[in-house]
């Protein structure tokens, strides 16, 4: 009977060992499945990236073809607009220089010299400064500067070039401030020369 009990007691140990072995195998199998799933996800991600790159390349090729076709058709009009744009810039520069120097200085200097020969010296200086500022603002700015701003904004929006619009906007702002400061500096020098003489 003792032998039978010993054999009966040894059976649960073997069953527990077998169960623990099965659990270990299940864990190992689960880990293997997880490891196998990761490369599949990575492969899917790589496939998605490759498809996205291919679609992007195809879209870029189509866009380049459309741009090439559009450029072949509309090249003369774009060149004409660019020439008109450069002409407007050159005209605005020339008009601003011409109107601010040859008109304002010519009129104001001759008036100041004419009035300087008379009694009213300070009146001549004030009139010359006032006329120079008036002519440089109301003639050179409103005729040439605002015309160049209007043409530059219109043509840059029509052409659709943002960097050209920024360049012309900065140029227009500088062209607004420079004709105002230029006559003041010139007439301050004239005032000093007249005062010292």
From TrEMBL:
Residues 1-47 are annotated as: Disordered. Residues 30-41 have a biased composition (Basic residues). It comes from the Eukaryota. The keyword DNA damage does not apply. Residues 1-17 have a biased composition (Polar residues). Keywords: Membrane, Transmembrane, Transmembrane helix. The keyword Cell cycle does not apply. The chain crosses the membrane at residues 87-107, 113-131, 138-157, 163-181. InterPro entries: MFS_trans_sf. This is Uncharacterized protein. The lineage of its organism: Eukaryota, Metazoa, Spiralia, Lophotrochozoa, Mollusca.
């Amino acid at each position: 009977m003792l032998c039978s009990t010993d054999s009966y007691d040894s059976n649960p140990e073997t069953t527990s060992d077998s169960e623990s072995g099965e659990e270990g195998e299940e864990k190992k199998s689960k880990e293997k499945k997880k490891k196998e799933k990761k490369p599949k996800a990575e492969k899917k991600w790589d496939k998605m990236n490759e498809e996205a790159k291919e679609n992007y390349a195809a879209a870029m090729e189509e866009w380049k073809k459309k741009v090439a076709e559009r450029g072949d058709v509309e090249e003369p009009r774009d060149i004409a607009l660019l020439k008109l744009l450069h002409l407007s810039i050159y005209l605005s520069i020339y008009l601003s220089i011409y109107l601010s120097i040859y008109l304002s200085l010519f009129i104001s200097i001759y008036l100041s010299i004419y009035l300087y020969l008379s009694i009213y010296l300070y009146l001549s200086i004030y009139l010359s400064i006032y006329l120079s500022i008036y002519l440089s603002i109301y003639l050179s700015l409103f005729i040439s500067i605002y015309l160049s701003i209007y043409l530059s904004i219109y043509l840059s929006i029509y052409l659709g070039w943002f960097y050209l619009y920024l360049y012309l906007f900065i140029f227009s702002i500088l062209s607004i401030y420079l004709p105002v400061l230029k006559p003041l500096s010139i007439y301050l020098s004239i005032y000093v020369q007249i005062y010292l003489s």
